[in-house]
Amino acid sequence: MERLRTDGCRQPCLFRIGDKFYLKVDNSAIPLPNASCFTEAVEFLVMAFYVFHVEYPAPLRAFYACLERLMGVGGKQNSSVLRDFFRALDAAQ
Fold first, then answer.
1. Which structural domain range is residue 89 located in?
2. Cβ pair 15, 45 in contact under 8 A
3. pTM for the model
4. In sequence order, what DSSP letters do the residues of 25-42 get, joined into one string?
């Protein structure tokens, strides 16, 4: 936890030790025993932003907006690049 803090990790963040995933929130490690794979752990991470009502880090807003769209939870970020990407994806299907 100290290394994440000194590296400038903003919360919440996801990390893995061995085969277990954890969320870092307020300098506490919250184990994710129900996250059996990386995809499920990322879902917990996105949910943590909602539960704790925390804004996404500015450099990663478009990335998280893309994750929201892929997860079907709506998007906070309206980006023309994301709109074009998902239009092309929908058209390909």
1. 57-93
2. no
3. 0.68
4. ETTEEEE-TT--SHHHHH
Question: Is residue 48 within 8 Å of 67, Cβ to Cβ?
Answer: no
Instruction: Give every strand in the sheet of 28-31, ordered side by side.
Output: 13-17, 20-25, 28-31
pLDDT tens, 33-87?
A: 999 999 899 989 988 888 888 888 778 888 888 888 787 776 555 566 666 666 7
DSSP 47-86: HHHHHTT-PPPGGGHHHHHHHHHHHTS--S---HHHHHHH
Tokens of 81: 């690049």
Give yes or no: residues 49 and 61 share one domain.
no
2 lies in the same domain as 44: yes
Q: Tell me: do 48 and 69 sit in the same domain.
A: no
Residues 70 and 33 reside in one and the same domain:
no
Q: Tell me the per-residue pLDDT of 15-38, one tens digit each, with 9 for 90 and over.
A: 999 999 999 888 788 999 999 999
